[in-house]
Amino acid sequence: MSRHTRVDHAKAAARLMQAPGQWLPVGEYRNSFTASTTASMIRRPGQTNPSGRHYQPAGAYDARIVLTDDGARIEARYRGADLAPLVPARPRGGRQVRPSSDAERVLGQIERGEVRAGADAAREIAARAEAAYGDVWKPNTVRGLPTAQASTTAEVEAA
Predict the structure, then answer these.
(1) How many structural domains does the chain have?
(2) So which domain of life are we looking at (predicted)?
(3) What pLDDT sits at residue 44?
């Protein structure tokens, strides 16, 4: 997608009303934040956004975002005047977004070479730190703080 085409929300809302319950494309956005804001405006139209007036009454339309290679596509459906709940449909095309666990994310980073792990990587990091900061990790170079004299309860009460 080279250039964003402005969405005519009046036409989009009219087209959705002609096919109640069917998911139809509304528009494509390069910025997923803009797509998210627009989808929210379709679901909960208000007076703050002039385009929202086309999706009245509030709750009459559903909207979802499908990630594409170029950004995000908004699909919406008209629920009808009775606002009966509809079974959610899976988006056609696009990538499915599934949150990954931390373990899956880190293992993927290691697999792709974005993060190094293991004994060899630890040795390499230690060697770089030693070259940059010197031999600061040797036990005989660490100096402890002087120990404070222990006081007794009687000395504290007398003071």
Answers:
(1) 2
(2) Bacteria
(3) 79
Say how far apart CA 94 and CA 108 lie, in whole Å.
21
- In a domain? residue 73: yes
- The Cα 32–Cα 66 span in angstroms is 10
Residue of 2 and 37 predicted with greater confidence: 37
- Confidence at residue 135, expressed as pLDDT on a 0 to 100 scale: 75
Contact 94, 73 (CB under 8 A): yes
* CA nearest to 16, candidates 50, 71, 48, 64: 64
In a domain, 126, yes or no: yes
Residues 73-112 have pLDDT tens digits of 999 999 876 655 545 555 566 666 566 677 787 888 888 7
Share the mean pLDDT of the chain. Answer: 75
Query: Does a structural domain hold residue 69?
Result: yes
> Same structural domain for residues 73 and 105?
no
Task: Summarize the confidence of residues 51-63 as an average pLDDT.
Answer: 80
Q: Are residues 52 and 14 in the same domain?
A: yes
Burial of residue 38 (CB within 10 Å: 0-12, 13-18, 19+) is: buried
Q: Which domain holds residue 57?
A: 9-78
Contact between 74 and 35 (Cβ < 8 Å): yes
